[in-house]
Amino acid sequence: MSDSKVVVGVGPVSFDDVVAVARRDAQVVISAEALEVVASSRVHIEALAEQATPVYGVSTGFGALATRHIPHEKRAQLQRSLIRSHAAGTGDEVEREVIRAMMLLRLSTLATGRTGVRTETAQLYADLLSAGLTPVVYEYGSLGCSGDLAPLAHVALAVMGEGHVRTADGTLKPSREAMAERGLAPVTFAEKEGLALINGTDGMLGQLVLALTDLENLFKLADVAAAMSVEGQLGTDRVFADDLQRLRPHPGQAVSAANITRMLAGSPIVASHRGDDCPRVQDAYSLRCSPQVAGAARDTADHARAVAERELASVIDNPVITRDGRVESNGNFHGAPVAYVLDFLSIVVADLASISERRTDRFLDVARNHGLNPFLADDPGVDSGQMITQYTQAAIVSELKRLAAPASADSIPSSAMQEDHVSMGWSAARKLRRGIDGLTRVLAIEVLNAARGIEMRAPLTPAPGTAAVITAVREHAGGPGADRYLAPEIGAVVELARTGALVRAAESVVGPLH
Q: Which residue stretches, if any, does this entry annotate as coiled coil (predicted)?
């Protein structure tokens, strides 16, 4: 397990905390202050449990069954039944990093003292994360309203010693057995606890945080790829000048243009056609407008990040304990704010991939690539060159366009029309994760083609920044030559893109990109 540690207090966890726990197996500790607040808020729940007046989530059924008053002797069964019945997911298992992010975010809400759980319940969430035990959660089951009910219920099922978990090495084990091996014991839920563990937007929020983290790298990579395409296709860098960007002062656009300019600085290829005798007046939109597209993507992500940060600072539960000890129903579990930006980012991902594919296609078309061989082939006709790499891009981009259709525009009523409008935010998050994977692959293929196109401009040489990226690619994929098995080379460059190695190669020469 990791030596790093994340402390969960009464305040919100950070983006870095979520990533550290989800992806780097950071240990999780609840602060003494948070444990004290959790314990003090529990007193209000226990007092309400003794009252004759029904209180939702404490002494009643749930959802459309909230009119049923539950006697003391059946309340432990009520909580168990809630979790068992709501752990109704199906489909493929959700990725480990998503489940760990979701667990941390639910724990963060528990630690605010607004949910009324006991300290031992909150502590077991921290202990499971620290032990690397990840409950099995399935793809389908959340409507993104009343929280991510089914996914969070599968986690709670493991906490009460039922269902299955995967250990840090991926071994599937019954939850109770895996906990016992690590000296942990399941919790028997008391009043309100089962409901408090499943009534949050933590699944969709965790995926939003992880997606925004991935996009930070991909936005930089999009600029790197665009610069390589501009260079390899004998485009001009003049359109990226700062004074031109200031005429339309979107902040992301200026950042993207500055990155491309730095990548092209010192390029003998660009310098070779910079004179007044160059017959080309304007580059195609996919080259010239790269900062406008990638910049708008950044600005959209900035908005999404603001929403995510507000959500990280929120207490999502129903009912919730107020500062003066009231237990009040509310609608804060509705996932609309998160669902909208998840869908917005799916549009961003699809469009970034679309403009990347267009730049790649220009490399391969002899009518538009300004003197390069058709399809960048070594011996055109005998060799097909990079022809089918664009097909691969096109297949992915087509799917990303379908995934850009908003999930949040849909709603299917549930719970006998009590929950008659839902966000579908979990679905928005799932398709965004697929979209980010697709964008990574599309950008990697553009870099692979751009590297080949630039090398075919020899004896002209590239800019130091683009040359560093080409060197990184050539450690895993061969340069221009006769046709060869391309899938492994594509896979290797995709991995370089995913891990940030391509961006780091560029930054090792030009300095930090933004």
A: none
Q: What is the pLDDT of residues 176-214, one digit of tens each?
A: 999 999 999 999 999 999 999 999 999 999 999 999 999
What is the mean predicted confidence (pLDDT) over 201-230? 98
Tens of pLDDT, residues 235-260: 999 999 999 999 999 999 999 999 99
Residue carrying structure tokens 């237990």: 327
* Nearest in space to 376 (alpha carbons), one of 232, 485, 231, 222: 232
Cα separations in angstroms, 289 against 195, 225, 263, 355: 50, 13, 16, 9
Give the three-state DSSP class for 164. strand
Name residues whose C-beta falls within 8 Å of residue 276's C-beta, 6 or more positions apart in sequence.
none
Class of domain 5-200: mainly alpha
Return the biggest CA–CA distance within the chain.
Answer: 90
Q: Which of 56, 340, 391, 485 is catalytic?
A: 56
Is residue 56 part of the annotated active site? The answer reads: yes
CA torsion, ordered 292, 242, 244, 284, to nearest 10 deg: -50
CATH 2.60.120.330 is held by the domain 207-315+345-510: no
Instruction: Report the distance separating Cα 190 and Cα 138, nearest Å.
Output: 26
Report the distance separating Cα 477 and Cα 199, nearest Å: 48
According to DSSP, the β-strands at 134-135 and 164-166 are antiparallel
